[in-house]
Design brief:
Helix content: 25-40%
Shape: elongated
Distance between the termini: 72 Å
Strand order of the largest sheet: 2-6-7-10-1-11-12-13-14
């Protein structure tokens, strides 16, 4: 049945901006503090308390708008969005409505081998609500530490056509925002979440009735929630029913969506201009701040300038900090491909999803180790062993190598003597080799490496052995 329907998806994404203080007051917005310890009359909505706009939040929101190619309004306005929830102390939210910060942007990305472009309808600055905790005995507790944290709302047009595509878009948007360093986008801490509007229709028919899925706070929840909702709506229509416009929540444990409330329209919120805030007039300096090199451009440069394979360049540029680590590492190295391999496999493999800023070996320390390999002072296998000891001990490559005396036997004359010795000691293996069983070269190499305590270059040993055996 799904093949007979077209899926229409738009996203409303909320990004917590990484500022020191809240959007309209001087309270800290540090995560994880004791409940209700970072509050004041402004973020609690006390009568007579006046908001003051956070300049850093504006700067970071403008950076995001520019990176998305949006049209930025030199003058924008704040409004009161009126609705009552226990976690909204004023009974309204200060946000933007008409004449928002920016509009008409776009994000381009690749999905299933095709270039896709999702348009951004508008981008708004607004304040976060408090956090509710529902207890097992029927009570709801409120933590107002989160109340007033600056949010950037990014609203897309309904340009997405599948749950998988929506997940890819959301992933790429998160990557862009992290590159800009406007938010850590840690979804477990609530820094980034999405609401999804979804409808289905048969091709050529008018748009179907949309349903909103609220508070999707992981890539998995976004894709699975949308997938369930697609099937639910199709089955409803096929059975002769009709889709009701409503807001639903996705139950990740059960894998189903459940009704939350009837979907509100704009007139339900009774928007009107915020009387306590002047219009936001942007200083030109906000529009002139240099943008960092963005992910797509960096990935293409790594392929072009460093000769990296596209899949390796993709891994190295997923995070801005990883790309910066790699570029710091390769200063003065000649084997760029090997350095890329070390970062993509050994460094990131050790981190297991942690940020590279937590990696104990800094670029200059790993560069010292790789330079020793390039200059044939140690073998690649020995370098891997030294790498693990650097992680365990915190010592430098030079310190570990000096302690162990692990250097390559540079003289081929010395190696040739050892090769000849191994050949004399293994006449049976030599005879097998001369009868065409070339696989015995492995054990012979192993014996040479044993006599050199693993410090010889295996490739040099192989070439010397083959030359002597062929002779």
């Amino acid at each position: 049945m799904a093949a007979d329907y077209e899926v229409i998806i738009g996203l409303e994404i909320h990004v917590e901006l990484d500022t020191q203080t809240k959007l309209f007051c001087g309270c800290s917005r540090e995560y994880g503090r004791d409940p209700n310890t970072q509050i004041c009359p402004v973020c609690l909505g006390y009568p007579g308390a006046l908001p003051v706009l956070n300049q850093e939040a504006v700067r970071k929101a403008v950076l995001a708008a520019r990176a998305l190619g949006a049209r930025i309004h030199r003058r924008s306005y704040f409004y009161r969005k009126n609705y009552f929830y226990p976690d909204l102390p004023k009974g309204y939210q200060i946000t933007q409505y008409t004449y928002s910060l920016a509009e008409e942007g776009a994000l381009e990305f690749e999905f299933e081998g095709q270039k896709r472009r999702v348009r951004i309808e508008r981008m708004n600055l607004e304040e976060e609500a408090a956090k509710s905790f529902h207890t097992d005995d029927g009570y709801t507790l409120l933590d107002f530490n989160r109340s007033g944290i600056p949010l950037l709302e990014i609203v897309t047009y309904p340009d997405l056509r599948s749950p998988a595509e929506a997940r890819t878009f959301f992933t790429r948007l998160r990557q862009l925002l992290r590159y800009l360093r406007i938010s850590p986008c840690d979804m477990e801490k609530g820094h980034l979440r999405a609401d999804a509007n979804i409808s289905v229709r048969k091709p050529g028919e008018p748009l179907g009735t949309k349903v909103e899925l609220k508070n999707l706070n992981s890539f998995k929840a976004l894709e699975e929630g949308l997938r369930y909702e697609v099937q639910r709506q199709i089955q409803l229509l096929e059975s002769g029913g009709r889709v009701v416009q409503e807001t639903r929540l996705f139950d990740e444990d059960e894998g189903v969506t459940r009704p939350m409330r009837t979907k509100e329209e704009a007139h339900d919120y009774r928007y009107f201009p915020e009387p306590d805030l002047l219009p936001l007039d942007l200083d030109p300096k906000f529009l002139e701040e240099p943008l960092p090199e963005l992910p797509d451009a960096k990935r293409e440069r790594f392929i072009r300038d460093y000769g990296l394979r596209p899949d390796v360049a993709e891994v190295l540029t997923l995070e801005r900090e990883t790309a910066e680590y790699f570029e710091a590492l390769i200063q003065g190295l000649t084997d760029i491909e090997q350095a890329a391999h070390w970062v993509a496999n050994r460094v990131l493999g050790h981190l297991k999803g942690q940020a590279i800023t937590a990696f104990p070996i800094r670029p200059e320390g790993l560069r010292e180790l790789l330079r020793l390999v390039e200059t044939r002072k140690i073998t690649l296998n020995k370098a891997k062993d030294v790498f693990e000891k650097m992680l365990d001990t915190g010592k430098s490559a030079a310190e570990i190598i000096e302690e162990e005396g692990a250097t390559v036997i540079a003289s081929e004359d010395v190696l040739q003597t050892i090769v000849d010795e191994v050949i004399r000691e293994n006449p049976e293996l030599v005879e097998k080799y001369r009868k065409g069983k070339t696989g015995v070269i492995g054990p012979l190499i192993g014996q040479v490496m044993k006599k050199t305590k693993g410090s010889a270059d295996p490739q040099v040993v192989r070439s010397l052995l083959v030359a002597r055996l062929e002779a």
